[in-house]
Predict the 3D structure of the following.
Amino acid sequence: MRTIWKGSVVLGLVSVPVRLQAAISADEVHFHMLHKECHSRTRQQIFCPVCQRTIDRKETEKGYEYEEDKYVVVDEKELEKLEAERSRTIEIIQFVQIQQVDPIYYDRPYYLTPDEVGEKAYQLLTKAMKEAGRVALGKFVLKSQEHLVLIRPADDGLMLHFMRYEHELRKLTDYWKPGKMEVREKELRLAEQLVESLTEDFSPEKYKDEYRESLLGLIQAKIEGRSVAVVEPKREMGQVVNLMDALKKSLEGAAKGVKRPAARVAAAAERAASPVAGSRKRRAKH
């Protein structure tokens, strides 16, 4: 596993040597741009509109636009000096209860694993945080940016989450301001019953990326020279005429197991797992 960053978690006078490693596998389906005529892969070029020519990446430099079409140039050595002192340490600022952190602040997750010489200190920090029921908030510099991070115990080790700063977030009221809408007691009780009837333990293995699986099936069929009939699903959007009736019918359906989310997801995952076979059945019917 590739190490993205290597340094230390600093807590007061305690230094814990660690490595930062990816917690998410890059399994997205990527496409390349091809020339229609010969199907060869195209290349992106950097074009200077003033000099009217294509330039090499070595001829470029970083510039910050402080006014329209006015830039201040910053070179790599200047950036390296700014981040040199803090680039090898994650400084813990404080500990908090994880319930106090709104999920909206979470960004990317990574595993924080011990370096060879820091395993004892790593295990000590992990156990202390787990026993105290606390997570750590800290800061460190990576790729010329200072990041706010949250470190939490995960299994027998530590996980690091990049966090968003307050100034990066927009508020709900920027898009929508709630009006004064009366909610009747009976409607609220029915809605609560509906929520309760569809509540079950979180099992991440039940949920699949159906689009990705279907896309890979399509690609495999094309590789093998087979055609796939793609049928666009029909989605009907019903208009809610009476909220009480809609809640009652939804509750009845949930009680019968007609529209339980897990059942829908499982059935869809099975269909998506063999998109080519599914298309053969559709063609056979026609």
In short: Confidence is low (pLDDT under 50) at residues 259-286. The helical segments are 76-83, 119-132, 185-197, 210-223, 243-256, 261-273, 275-285. The CA atoms of residues 19 and 113 lie 5 Å apart. Residues 119-132 form the longest helix (14 residues).
